[in-house]
Design brief:
Blueprint lengths: L31 H4 L15 H24 L3 H18 L7 E3 L11 H9 L3 E6 L8 E5 L5 E3 L5 E3 L4 E2 L3 E5 L2 E2 L5 E2 L5 H8 L5 E5 L20 E3 L4 E3 L8
Parallel strand pairs: 1-2, 1-7, 7-10, 10-11
Antiparallel strand pairs: 2-3, 3-6, 4-5, 8-9, 11-12
Length: about 250
């Protein structure tokens, strides 16, 4: 007997094919090119996109997304903006440090951003020091100059008012406007990269609090190696935190 337990029919066919014409199931020789990999070259794989190509795609996506978010924010009705602004102010008062003499950096509102000027005047009345960012060089970190009500102002980049003079100061907390933000607290700004450079270059990194409306929340900004997340993001509805801040996402 054979060592195999499958057995064969007397004519050499397998038992299940005994008595059947198997020629109809055989592959003709002319079809071998379909089953022989060596006879047909495989399609070439496309090389993965380089970091530069990936960044270019993200850069173009961000450009389109900025336009959408700016239009959405500018179209917010005044009454709705006032209600949301009040809620943001109340939320910020809960998270900002209150000891007199604390130096907080804020911003002058631009293109429909939350307006922190009333908050700044209130903080100043409580003995908090304030400072505004000043662009002194393109593609470089900003400096901060101290601000108080009535200080002489000048027109800065994008015609945003800035303190006309003053020595650079180093705030321990920054209020940073967000055009968009995601669950990881990465911020989408206007594309200049000033805040990322400023945070990266700081000798002692300030606590960065992103500020914006809930409508600015997006799934992801597709963060890149140069992007620095906010420690927290405050909107009219939520206080979003990071692992480092100990606050819920």
């Amino acid at each position: 007997m054979s060592g195999s337990d499958s057995g064969t029919a007397p004519n050499g066919e397998s038992p299940e094919n005994a008595g059947r014409d198997v020629r109809a199931y055989s592959s003709p020789a002319c079809m071998m090119h379909e089953i022989d990999p060596a006879s047909t070259p495989l399609p070439e794989k496309q090389p993965p996109a380089s970091p530069a190509q990936q960044w270019e795609e993200v850069r173009l996506w961000r450009k389109v997304k900025r336009a959408v978010l700016i239009e959405r924010r500018l179209s917010m009705p005044d009454a709705e903006r006032a209600v949301h602004g009040k809620a943001i102010t109340e939320a910020l008062l809960q998270v900002l440090p209150s000891p007199p003499g604390t130096l907080i950096g804020f911003y002058w509102p631009f293109k429909g951003e939350y307006d922190p000027r009333a908050l700044a005047r209130l903080l100043h009345a409580r003995g908090i020091r304030l400072a505004l960012p000043v662009v002194v060089e393109k593609s470089a970190p900003v400096i901060f100059r101290e601000w108080w009500p009535g200080i002489p102002m000048a027109s800065g980049v994008w015609s945003i008012p800035v303190p006309a003079a003053g020595e650079p100061v180093a705030p321990s907390v920054l209020l940073v406007p967000v055009l968009g933000f995601d669950r990881q607290n990465y911020r989408l700004g206007y594309g200049g990269g000033y805040y990322d450079r400023t945070l990266a270059a700081a000798a002692t990194r300030p606590r960065a609090i992103g500020v914006g409306f809930e409508q600015s929340r997006i799934a992801t900004i597709h963060p890149q190696p140069h992007d620095i997340p906010m420690d927290q993001v405050v909107t009219e509805r939520a206080l979003a935190g990071s692992a480092s801040s100990g606050l819920p996402p």
